[in-house]
From TrEMBL:
GO terms for biological process: axon guidance; central nervous system development; neural crest cell migration; positive regulation of cell migration; semaphorin-plexin signaling pathway. SMART domains: Sema. Gene3D superfamilies: YVTN repeat-like/Quinoprotein amine dehydrogenase. Keywords: Cell membrane, Developmental protein, Differentiation, Disulfide bond, Glycoprotein, Membrane, Neurogenesis, Signal, Transmembrane, Transmembrane helix. Transmembrane segments: none annotated. Residues 31-523 form the Sema domain. Residues 1-25 form the signal peptide. It holds the Pfam family Sema. This is Semaphorin 6B. Its main location: membrane. GO terms for molecular function: chemorepellent activity; semaphorin receptor binding. It comes from Myotis lucifugus (Little brown bat).
Length: 526
């Protein structure tokens, strides 16, 4: 049994505490929450464990769920599982249990399973894990499954969950291995995906397919473009799609591998380069580091991005909130930083960074050595170059060899809005409510730990030009994992891994997904 305990301070932790304490008194202490929910409160809230209408438990002998993705569309929740897809109504908000109204089973066929087994994969991996679950139009879901290491995608009816039309290949749209992180997004009928394209998971891509424009990808096997990336999130903003990820930094001349967090962007209307340079590849791919650090005499960086929210409007600014942690071999610490999308975009208009030779250090490219029009910009009809394929080779070559921006994106206020170093588990999920409180004008941030503990904070984003944040108040802490429903007794701890955390404003609740269940808990307990 797990017993709550605070880990004994390790020397490195003490060092961080000293650093934080020295940070102009910004984070000298971490007060406890104003309230902690009583231990039994959770038993009142609804849970989805894979049972059909009117049943509290799944049918006898049914496998535990193995949830991969959840998608909420208005008052309906779609749950992508292993070999199954569920449709669950969230109405009425007072219901005491969550049941599926529809269930669709989509198994890999025996020949795909055989090939998967022959390639040396375990039986448990050679199944169909739903890794992409998107709304394609009002009536259609787009679903991809790992399909026994031979990924497939198809349209499904939002009402009946029946497949519509043919399967298409999931290559570059969906990972082969269910353990791999991937992101996917539809915009203007085009599918933007970030994943690995091969069985061995060596070739990482940002890929665009479907829709009216040509299929495009990032340059293959070029460590300037990607080095062991882990994709976290994607958002559409203006004429670009932005991808949030972390990767090994190649711009540091260190011997050890250092992970940094990044944002990359591509133009939605990119059609690829010329037949000579970057054909069928992005001409607009650029990336920049995200700076989530605690100021002070010696700067402390939170480098490992775990999750990012969608773009929300805060104080009139388009903002994303991201949660970062320290590397797993380091002291456990987490921080929430806010980034203004206009500042993200500004960094992509700034200087480029380059390494002149494999031995030299990375330096900014002098502005007079940057060709015009600016590499990475979006071509458009009416401009000098009306399509990206018309750009001169000089520009295409520059962007191919200079995907990294010199400056890091500053966080709003140049400091994290929330820092936690004394939590038992790493914080890995974030959700934000910008319309909270009795007047709908307060901002509440929910942080979810690996084990499903939710920490709720009130923040005061400062609408002034600097966009700093006032002090945050740690309102409460509560659990979302229900050991009685969400895991077999004696089951492994891995069932208690928070997969996603989503705000469901209409029901005043949070939806927390774990491998074996989805739990709905109210955002406030009074
Ligand atoms: C979701 O709700 C909006 C607003 O009521 C509506 O316009 C939209 O069609 C709904 N989406 C689906 C897929 O039902
Ligand atoms: C999937 O649905 C979209 C429209 O929602 C349609 O354009 C496309 O052809 C469909 N694909 C297949 C394979 O049926
Ligand atoms: C799609 O793939 C699944 C799994 O391999 C298979 O059962 C189904 O028949 C396929 N559907 C079509 C229309 O090809
Ligand atoms: C782009 O410009 C070329 C001439 O420079 C013209 O032939 C072509 O039709 C234009 N395409 C579009 C989409 O405007
Ligand atoms: C990150 O931001 C801090 C605070 O503004 C700044 O001092 C530091 O130089 C920045 N780091 C990078 C890599 O830009
Ligand atoms: C929210 O609105 C109420 C009533 O208009 C006002 O008293 C309060 O100061 C506002 N709070 C914030 C954080 O803007
Ligand atoms: C907001 O920022 C301005 C400028 O930095 C500062 O003067 C003001 O005190 C801040 N307000 C709050 C509530 O933090």
């Amino acid at each position: 049994m797990r017993t709550p305990r605070v880990p004994p301070p390790r020397p490195a932790l003490l060092l961080l505490l000293l650093l934080l304490g020295g940070a102009h008194g910004l984070f000298p202490e971490e007060p406890p929450p104003l309230s902690v929910a009583p231990r039994d409160y959770l038993s009142h809230y609804p849970v989805f464990v894979g049972s059909g209408p009117g049943r509290l438990t799944p049918t006898e002998g049914a496998e535990d769920l193995n949830i991969q993705r959840v998608l909420r569309v208005n008052r309906t929740l779609f749950i992508g599982d292993r070999d199954n897809l569920y449709r669950v109504e969230l109405e009425p908000p007072t219901s005491t249990e969550l049941w599926y109204q529809r269930k669709l089973t989509w198994r890999s066929n025996p020949s795909d399973i055989n090939v998967c087994r022959m390639k040396g994969k375990q039986e448990g991996e050679c199944r169909n894990f739903v890794k992409v679950l998107l709304l394609r139009d009002e009536a259609t879901l787009f679903v991809c499954g790992s399909n026994a290491f031979n990924p497939l995608c198809a349209n499904y009816s939002i009402d009946t969950l029946q497949p519509l039309g043919d399967n298409i290949s999931g290559m570059a749209r969906c990972p082969y291995d269910p353990k791999h992180a991937n992101v996917a997004l539809f915009s203007e009928g085009m599918l933007f995906t970030a994943t690995v394209t091969d069985f061995l998971a060596i070739d990482a891509v940002i890929y665009r397919s479907l829709g009216d424009r040509p299929t495009l990808r990032t340059v293959k096997h070029d460590s300037k473009w990607f080095k062991e990336p882990y994709f976290v999130h994607a958002v559409e903003w203006g004429s670009h799609i932005y991808f949030f990820f972390r990767e090994i930094a190649m711009e540091f001349n260190y011997l050890e591998k250092v992970v940094v967090s990044r944002v990359a962007r591509v133009c939605k209307n990119d059609v690829g380069g010329s037949p000579r340079v970057l054909e069928k590849q992005w001409t607009s791919f650029l990336k920049a580091r995200l700076n989530c650090s605690v100021p002070g005499d010696s700067h402390f960086y939170f480098n490992v991005m775990q999750a990012v929210t969608g773009v929300v409007s805060l104080g009139g600014r388009p903002i994303v909130l991201a949660i970062f942690s320290t590397p797993s071999n380091s002291i456990p610490g987490s921080a929430v930083c806010a980034f203004d999308m206009t500042q993200v975009a500004a960094v992509f208009e700034g200087r480029f960074r380059e390494q002149k030779s494999p031995e030299s250090i990375w330096t900014p490219v002098p502005e007079d050595q940057v060709p015009r029009p600016r590499p990475g910009c979006c071509a458009a009809p009416g401009m000098q170059y009306n399509a990206s394929s018309a750009f001169p080779d000089e520009i295409l070559n520059f962007v191919k060899t200079h995907p990294l921006m010199d400056e890091a994106v500053p966080s709003l206020g140049h400091a994290p809005w929330i820092v936690r170093t004394l939590t038992r588990h790493q914080l890995t999920r974030v959700a934000v409510d910008v319309g909270a409180g009795p007047w709908g004008n307060q901002t509440v941030v929910f942080l979810g730990s690996e084990a499903g503990t939710i920490l709720k904070f009130l923040v005061w984003p400062n609408a002034s030009a600097l966009g700093t944040s006032g002090p945050s108040v740690f309102l409460e802490e509560f659990e979302t994992y229900r050991p009685d429903r969400c895991g077999r007794p004696g089951g492994s701890e891995t069932g208690q891994r928070l997969l996603s955390l989503e705000l469901d404003v209409a029901s005043g609740g949070l939806l927390a997904a774990f491998p074996h269940c989805v739990v709905r808990v109210p955002v406030a307990r009074c």
